[in-house]
Amino acid sequence: MTFLAPFAAAIAAAVFIPALVALYFLKLRRRIVEVSSTLLWRKAVQDMEVNAPLQRLRRNLLLLLQLLILLALLFALARPTYQQAGKAGQRMVILIDRSGSMNATDAAPTRLEAAKLAALKLVDDLPTTAPGGAMVVAFAQRTQVVQPFTTDAGLLRAAIRAIEPTDEPTRLEPALRLIEPVANQPDAPPLDLYLLSDGRVQAGTDFKIGNAQFHFVRIGGPALPTGTGLAATPVSAPASSASSAAAIPAPADNVGIVGLAARRDFRKPEAVQILVSLANFGSDRADLNLTLRVDGSPRHVIHTFIPAVSSSTGEPGTQSAQFELDLPGAANVEVSHDRPDMLPADDRAGLLIAEPRQLRVLLVSPGNGFLEQAIKAAGVRRVVAMQPGDYERRDPQLLRRGGWDPSPMGAEGFDVIVFDRFSPKSRPPIDALFFASTPPAPGLKILPPSSQSLGTQPVLDWRRDHALLRYVEMQDVTIESPGRLVLPDGAEVLATCQSGPVMGMMTIDNQRFVFTSFDLAQARTWPMQVSFPVFMSNTLPWLGLGGQGEAGRGFRPGETAVITASGSEVVYRGPTSLKAPVAQGRAVLPPFPRAGVYLADHSRVAPAWDRLPVNLLSLEESDIRPAPDVHVAGQAVAAVSAETTTRREVWRWFAWAALGVMLVEWLIYTRRMHI
Amino acid sequence: MPPTLVTAWDATAMAERLGAQPASTGVASDPDALLTGDFMRRLDQLDVLSRKILAGKLKGERRSKMRGQSVEFADYRQYVAGDDLRHIDWNLYARLDKLFLRLFMEEEDLALSVLLDVSKSMRYGQPDKLLCGKRLAAALAYIGLVNYNRVNVCAFADTIVGHLPNLRGRRPVPQVFDFLDGLQPASAAGDLAASARRFAMTVKGKGIVVLISDFLDKGDLASALRYLASDRYDVYVLQILSPQEIDPAANGLVGDLALRDLEDRQTTEVSITPALMKRYKATLEAFCQGIREQCMRRDMMYMLSDTSVPFEAMVLRYLRERGLLG
What we know:
The structure holds two protein chains of two kinds.
Chain A: E1 2-3, H1 6-25, E2 31-35, H2 39-51, H3 55-77, E3 80-84, E4 91-97, H4 111-124, E5 133-139, E6 143-150, H5 153-161, H6 172-183, E7 191-197, E8 213-218, H7 241-246, E9 255-264, E10 271-280, E11 286-294, E12 297-306, E13 317-326, E14 331-337, E15 348-353, E16 360-364, H8 369-377, E17 382-386, H9 388-393, H10 396-401, E18 416-420, E19 432-435, E20 445-447, E21 456-462, E22 478-480, E23 484-486, E24 492-497, E25 500-508, E26 511-516, H11 531-544, E27 552-553, E28 562-564, E29 569-573, E30 577-583, E31 586-588, E32 596-600, E33 611-614, H12 619-622, E34 629-632, E35 635-640, E36 646-649, H13 651-673
Parallel strand pairs in A: 4-5, 4-7, 7-8, 8-35, 16-17, 16-18, 18-19, 19-26
Antiparallel strand pairs in A: 1-3, 3-36, 5-6, 9-10, 10-13, 11-12, 11-14, 14-15, 15-27, 20-23, 21-22, 21-24, 24-25, 25-26, 28-31, 29-30, 29-32, 30-31, 32-33, 34-35
Chain B: H1 8-18, H2 37-43, E1 59-78, H3 90-96, E2 100-108, E3 111-117, H4 129-146, E4 150-156, E5 160-167, H5 173-181, H6 192-202, E6 207-213, H7 221-228, E7 233-241, H8 243-246, E8 256-261, E9 267-271, H9 274-297, E10 301-306, H10 311-321
Parallel strand pairs in B: 3-4, 3-6, 6-7, 7-10
Antiparallel strand pairs in B: 1-2, 4-5, 8-9
Helix pairs in contact in B: 1-2, 4-5, 6-7
């Protein structure tokens, strides 16, 4: 219990308690009454004092009661508060994290279920007279308002209970953006924001919470000390980098597969390399067996270990494993480990290994022999060089399907088009790589280098975790006066120089385009470095084969898939059931909510699309260590447990107690005075 | 001398002369009136009785231990030289040839002394204890006077503050009433012992002593009664208390009080609680019981009365039951 106004109570106590005691010791102002004689009275009083040795104590009982009353009133004046499970302000927004990490089982049965229970408690304490009521928002990668503002507790409870778990990554910012207008609504009652999460969330810094009070109710992890309240670490406390760096989350017992890739050997296409990345978030070294299954049959077992979490930096222990096997045709591979932990979703991951296929690449360039050689070096089956003018005269659809040229060579279509310093007038129907050019898309263009960006510039940052730039080291890459990419919404920046983005990608109508603001001549030494052929080897299969690896295809929770299918509807069954209508031979599936394998009727979908592996493969979601705080709008909000979410003032209790004791004191007094 | 009966006419006339109320309820109309005519007529039928046969000074209407000259024959005795020849029974001499002297009963008067406490404490109460005492004294004096007893009326506080000595017959009745009517509470604190001592020194004769007081005297009661504990006196002790003294709380004495003594002005602080009231009543009872025991030890008749008791009942019933009146 803490006090909101202890100094006022202390001052009042310093004044009133001595005053009361002094008053008690002062002589009572008695009414003077004349009697015939005080002879009998004196004897009676003397007898009383002689016969009742506790008389003084009995007389002082009233003083004690009065002191008790005064103390109770002083307590009430000090505004005592206590942490209470759940309390509603006048308006309340409950944000429930349902990302992959919330499926950890450290809070039985899962963190999400514990979060729902905590949310139900908050609803239980919601005053029915609250003007705005409460709103329930569930979020992961996508944000969903499961219940708009209402004071109907039944609706709120039903909405909370209906929240389903997902394995999607966590994105808090869209949820905050959603409620930002509510939080900043002028002349509205105060708003309490309750984030029920394990804290593995990220939120932007430009979010304004207005007069809202942000509460981070941490779900899972070790118990938080009682009394850790919002008042102790208010939302207004600026986030300290030192303190956040020092706040290493407690280890959590989870070993997860955080990366999975398959690659066919260019020279020996049936040879497949499967790379597995593992991470350990526990405090002990994890020894485990890693099993590779091909079409459900175990093929290899590797015993390996993963070091524990670094006690100094808090970095999880990581380990890599590699399988090599011959797969002449398509196959489903699955990697799993046998160590039980708190998050089963990341214990296995699968890929669909496509048939060995060598790419057919069209190079549209005014002339770049070096690039043509580089494409050939990437292991493609065929490279056709074409002048830009010639390209513009061709039917793009024929370039995709084949028949673009009467010669036998033109009977086959292309998998990838590489545009060198040429931007086509219309959007190519094939995935394409652009050097110093961009596909025609609104908002996408290359600004010429400004005066500040003239000269050689190093690549400052690049997306090491992206499939295109995996194993691509660009720290020694310098670019001569690069242009600056202007990217529309939905585009991703892959590499940045001092002048701005120089490499990016975007998806338009399920076609992927990778583009740079520089050509190879500007890139100076990059084509001579190892990283360039690696980049080409990453990019051309990624574009041509439509997967994240050269040979394997898998999906992440929250991603969608475009399926070539027949009929009017396609249904996938797996962890959840997914349906999508088929239009023009294609069906766009809704985002995958859970990790696992989704199966469809193979007669309705194209071969190799009847089995879709969806893998968690997320270092952030596998990291189930609960965060000690979250940073929202540039502020650190300390975590409180679900049991200590709010602070309730209890001065009324003391006031009532004072009244009760006063009643007792009055009864004792009147009983004593009643003749 | 045969006893003289006061007729109803006489009493009424006297009451009118005294300005007393002719009401039949004693003191109904004027609360300050001492006696009413009707009540005085009823008192005419009473006489003061003594448990002792006490020698009087004058011839009276009361049989004496002495042989005297009344008409009532008492005894014979042989003649001895020197006896009064007029008392020789000559008829007996004729029959027995011996001289016998006829003896007659001697009749004496009775001394009745009424001592009335007029200390300040007597002023207390509702009804007033002093008024009640005055009425008692008036009634007793009236009875004594109409029965030709020798009546002394004394008012005392710290000493004898007023004294009507040796009254006899109906004539001094107005004097007695005026005396009693004019008595005011003394300014000094009461001193019963000094007053009793003074009384014993002043009134030498034998007789009935009626002591009317509340006995709320901080002095030594035993020493006071010792002065009256003599063979000369047949002492009746009448203690009068007011309802406010018997049950203070029921009569409005509540709260935290500073009780001031009417006589010595001393103050006692009390908080009226049930426990204190219980203790007070026990103290009062012990106090009254102590007076009773002191009186019994000295062969005195004790009677406690409450001023709320109707005056008629007090005189006509209680005093008769105690044997003072008959």
